[in-house]
Design brief:
The chain has about 325 residues and is of the alpha+beta class. The protein contains 6 helices and 12 strands. The protein has a 6-stranded antiparallel barrel with strand order 1-2-3-6-5-4. Strands 7-8-9-12-11-10 form a 6-stranded antiparallel barrel.
Length: about 325
C-alpha cells in the first residue's frame, strides 16, 4: 500500500489538531455557558489580570477587563448546537478536508517469529582450515521446512567462487534482540544464479536447513517440526514512496539484529528496487519488508554518494518466479536467471 509523505502527514495532523482544539473549546464554552459557569470563570480570569497589573492601569480607561455575558441556551438548544459540531467533525472525516492517516500508516511491530526468520549466515571458505575465512551475511527463512533465500555472494569463498563444501552455511537465530544470534542449524545449497556481466545481476541463492549444528553450544539436539518463516509479499505493485524496511545483521550493527526503514525510491531494470533505507555490509541476503512485515525482496547492494547512499534490493516476485519455474525443475545447483 502506498504511504503518504511523512512531512505532509505531519502538516495534516497539525491542521487536524488545531481544528479539533477550536471545536472542543467551542463545545466547552457552550457547556459552561449553559450551566451559568462561563461568565463567572471569565470574571475570575479578569481579576487575575487586574491583580497582576503593576502600573495601576486596569485595562483601557483605567477599568478592569469586562466581558459581555453570552446568550442563554435551553437544554434543547444546547443539544442541537453540540450535534451540529459533531456533524462538522464527521464532515471533515468523510470529505477528507483534513485528511486522516490511513490505517496502514500505523505499522505492526515485528513478532518474535518474524525476527527469528531473519537469520545470520556463517559460511566457511572451502579452504577454511588454511585461510580461516568465513563469509558472513543474512538470509530469510521463507517456509516451515527451512528454505532460505540469500545472496549468491554470501555463499562465496574468499576468491568469490561458490562454496562447494557441506554444510554450505551455519544458521544463527535471534531469540533476544539485545544479544547476538545463536548458531543452531546447518544448511546446504539448493541453487544459485551464476555471475553475469550485468552491473546488477541476479545475485540470489537458495539454501535448505538439513541438520542441527552438532559442534555449536546452544544448538538443539534435533530439528524442529516447523521453522519460523516470513510471509511473502508482492514487489511488482510497489511504487516510489511506498514503505520498506531492511532487517538483517550489518557489520556496523554490533552483532545483533538490526532494523532500518525508508521508502521505495525507484527501480532499475526488471528485478531491482531502489531504497533510501539503510543497508550495509552484512545486510546482504537479508529481508526487505513491506508495511505488513511481508518479504518483498533481498537487500543486495549499496552505492555511496558524496553525502548519502542508495540501497538496492532484488525483488521477491522475480525470485519466486525463478525458483518455481527454473530451480524446482532443475537437477543442477547452477540455475541461470
Amino acid at each position: 500500500m502506498k504511504q503518504k509523505g511523512f512531512i505532509s502527514i505531519k502538516v495534516q495532523l497539525i491542521i487536524l489538531a488545531v481544528a479539533l482544539l477550536i471545536i472542543s473549546l467551542e463545545i466547552t464554552g457552550l457547556v459552561l455557558d449553559s450551566k451559568g459557569k462561563l461568565f463567572p470563570l471569565l470574571y475570575k480570569i479578569s481579576q487575575v489580570f487586574t491583580r497582576k497589573s503593576t502600573d495601576g492601569v486596569q485595562g483601557e480607561g483605567g477599568k478592569g477587563l469586562t466581558f459581555k455575558e453570552g446568550p442563554e441556551y435551553s437544554d434543547e438548544e444546547m443539544e442541537k448546537r453540540i450535534k451540529e459540531l459533531e456533524e462538522k467533525i464527521k464532515d471533515l472525516e468523510d470529505n477528507q478536508q483534513v485528511p486522516f492517516p490511513p490505517e496502514e500508516y500505523f505499522l505492526p511491530p515485528l513478532t518474535q517469529e518474524e525476527i527469528s526468520a531473519v537469520v545470520e549466515l556463517w559460511c566457511p571458505d572451502d579452504n577454511y582450515n588454511n585461510t580461516g575465512y568465513i563469509s558472513i551475511g543474512s538470509g530469510s527463512i521463507v517456509s516451515p521446512e527451512g528454505i532460505i533465500i540469500t545472496n549468491r555472494h554470501v555463499i562465496s569463498n574468499e576468491d568469490w567462487s561458490v562454496i562447494k563444501s557441506a554444510p554450505t552455511c551455519y544458521v544463527a537465530i535471534t531469540s533476544d534482540i539485545a544479544w547476538p544470534p545463536v548458531v543452531k542449524y546447518a544448511a546446504n545449497l539448493i541453487a544459485y544464479a551464476p555471475v553475469t556481466n550485468d552491473y546488477f545481476d541476479f545475485d540470489i541463492a537458495i539454501l535448505y536447513i538439513n541438520d542441527v549444528c552438532r559442534e555449536c553450544e546452544g544448538a538443539p539436539s534435533t530439528l524442529p517440526s516447523s521453522f519460523s518463516y516470513l510471509d511473502l509479499g508482492y514487489s511488482d505493485i510497489l511504487a516510489p514512496g511506498d514503505y520498506v524496511a531492511i532487517a538483517g545483521y550489518p557489520g556496523i550493527g554490533a552483532g545483533t539484529f538490526n532494523f532500518t526503514d525508508g521508502i521505495i525510491s525507484g527501480r532499475v531494470g526488471e528485478f531491482v528496487l531502489k531504497t533510501d533505507a539503510k543497508i550495509d555490509s552484512g545486510n546482504s541476503g537479508g529481508s526487505a519488508l513491506n508495511n505488513r512485515n511481508q518479504l518483498i525482496g533481498a537487500p543486495t547492494w549499496t552505492i555511496s554518494g558524496q553525502a548519502e547512499s542508495m540501497g538496492y534490493v532484488i525483488a521477491i516476485d522475480q525470485i519466486v518466479e525463478w525458483y518455481e519455474t527454473k530451480v524446482v525443475p532443475s537437477t543442477s545447483v547452477i540455475v541461470p536467471y
